[in-house]
Design goal:
This protein is an alpha+beta fold. It has one domain: 2-Layer Sandwich (Transcription Regulator spoIIAA), CATH 3.30.750. The strands form two sheets. It has a two-stranded parallel sheet with strand order 1-4. The longest helix is centred in the middle third of the chain and has 13 residues. It is globular and about 40 Å long. The model has no long low-confidence stretch (mean pLDDT about 85). It comes from marine sediment metagenome.
Length: about 90
């Protein structure tokens, strides 16, 4: 619908709305830790960074919809931040 390949595990629900004030982004899926109380390892078999270009495209699309605030929805946002978060912020 927006020229992006669909993410079958977690579609971008914000695509259904014309105007938003807050948006949600994920830079990675999964978590590298295997905590006994956590369900994330059952949903995502391993930690995997999402492509930087895809995250930047999603950010641009959110900005076009008037989003002024972004919430990151990663389970391990700061894990290997030099490979995921820092390049995104630059």
């Amino acid at each position: 619908y927006l020229g992006l390949r669909p993410d079958l595990k977690q579609p971008a629900l914000w695509q259904a709305y014309d105007k938003l004030s807050v948006g949600v982004l994920k830079l990675s899926d999964g978590c590298p830790f295997n905590c006994t109380y956590c369900s994330v390892p059952k949903v995502y078999s391993k930690f995997k960074a999402r492509p930087l270009e895809r995250s930047l495209t999603e950010l641009e699309l959110l900005a076009k919809r008037g989003v002024g605030n972004i919430a990151f929805y990663d389970d391990a946002l700061l894990f290997e931040a030099e490979k995921t978060l820092i390049p995104f912020l630059e």
